[in-house]
Amino acid sequence: MINLTRLSIGAAVLLSALTANAQQQIIYPAEGQSPQQQQQDQGECQVWATQNTGIDPAVIAQTPPPQTSSVGGGERVQGAARGALGGLAIGAIAGDAGKGAAIGAVAGTMAGGRRARQNEAAEQQWDQAQRQEMMNTWQRAVGTCMQARGYTVG
Description:
Elements: H1 2-20, E1 27-28, H2 35-53, H3 57-62, H4 75-94, H5 97-148, E2 152-153
Antiparallel strand pairs: 1-2
Helix pairs in contact: 1-5, 2-5, 4-5
């Protein structure tokens, strides 16, 4: 589970790094289009891109990130249970099973909380990467439309 979390975080960071540079397009009127014509063409291409990709940047910008829970998805409870069992076994060997179980439960709760925070961070990074990929797709569609209308897109 920890390796999956690390892999997810790594993939999200890599995807964000690769797509961060593609956020802003530069559009040049290669056939001498006027600023008014460029503005009209860009507006029409943005509508076309939204219709053809199903991606609306306004909706993406207004959609709140996924809600996170401060308690975690059961990681703390699971950690406490595992810690208590481990502490119980160690405590039984040392002669005080109850004390060992209590110490193990506390340590397990802390470890579970750490796992919950890691999972939460991975979910947030995944969501951010997904939003960025959608925006990149939409911008590529706008660029393709603008190129078809005689603009150079970089």
